[in-house]
Every structure is written in structure tokens, then in C-alpha cells.
Amino acid sequence: MIHTEIREKIKEAMIARDALKLNVLRGLLTAFTNELVAKKRKPDEILSDEDAMAVIHRGVKQRKDSIEQFEKGGRADLAHDEQAELRVLETFLPQQMSKAEIETFIKAKQAETGSTDPAKKGQFMGLIMKDLKGKADSSTVKDVIDSLFS
User: Fold this and answer.
1) Using an 8 Å Cβ cutoff, are 2 and 52 in contact?
2) Do residues 7 and 29 make contact, with C-beta atoms less than 8 angstroms apart?
3) Sequence-distant (≥ 6) Cβ neighbours of residue 50 within 8 angstroms
4) Where in the chain is the domain with CATH 1.10.1510.10?
């Protein structure tokens, strides 16, 4: 269970005196508790791996958005801090597919379904995202699909 693993990693970070990792993991544990409360469950329960991954993905997306905003605002120092937190969170994510792997998968799926109509691009995107959930970055998938349908 990811939730239990995070609790163990907090203890390790405390022993190692790794303040950055400790803060990120504590924030993640808090997000898990918030998720449990939002799902009308007791805060001391263990979150399922699927729900935990959803929370971690949200954290990763938030960090990426923050990095982009800080870089636009000329705040490289804050962007650097967010990137360090992002690296800690990414250790809990499964290995993501490369752009080449995503392209190969999408072309195979396109040939299988015969989907080439630009008007049905949204439906095709939904189908692909369902298949690649958690395995590929959605913005990369969108870029590949946009290039194939244009």
C-alpha cells in the first residue's frame, strides 16, 4: 500500500534529516487524509493505491503548473524549490511511457479503430487516455494526437 509506504518513508526522512523530503511526504500524507475526508471516510483509514496515485498525480500536476508560473514570473529560485519537490513525488509514480512509445501506441489504436476524422478527435483522446491512465503524461498524449489529426 502506497499510503503505508509513505508513512515509512517519513520515518526514514526524519532519521536522515532530509527536510525537503520530509515536508513533501508530510504534505502528501495530509493530502491523503483530505482525500479520505472528501470521500466521507475516517481520516485514520488507509487510502487505496488507486486513490493514492490520483492524489500523487494531482500533486505532480500542481508542481508542474507552479514551476511554469514561477518561470514566467522570473522567479527561478521558487521554480527550483518546486522542481526539487516534484522529483520527490515522481519517485512514487510508475515509469511513464516515452513520446515514441506513446506515438506507436496511438498509431496502432488509430489503425485498429480506423479513427481519422478530426471531428471525432475528442472521443479518440478519451479512449486513449482511458487506456494509458497513469502510464503516460496527458499533455504528451494530447500533443501526439493533435499532430496525427492535423
Assistant:
1) yes
2) yes
3) none
4) 2-90
For the chain, residues classed under CATH 1.10.10.410 are: 99-149
pLDDT tens sequence across 58-96? 999 999 999 999 999 999 999 999 999 999 998 988 788
Give the architecture-level CATH label for domain 2-90.
Answer: Orthogonal Bundle (1.10)
Tens-place pLDDT, residues 118-132 = 777 788 888 888 888
Using only the alpha carbons of the chain, give its radius of gyration: 18
What is the rounded distance in angstroms from the CA atom of residue 85 to the CA atom of residue 134? 19
74/78 Cα distance (integer angstroms): 9
Residue 24's pLDDT band, with cuts at 50, 70 and 90, is: very high
Q: What is the dihedral of CA 123, 125, 126, 131, to 10 degrees?
A: 130
Domain 99-149 has CATH 3.40.228.10: no
User: Which pTM does this prediction carry?
Assistant: 0.72
Give the integer Cα–Cα distance in Å for 147 and 30.
39
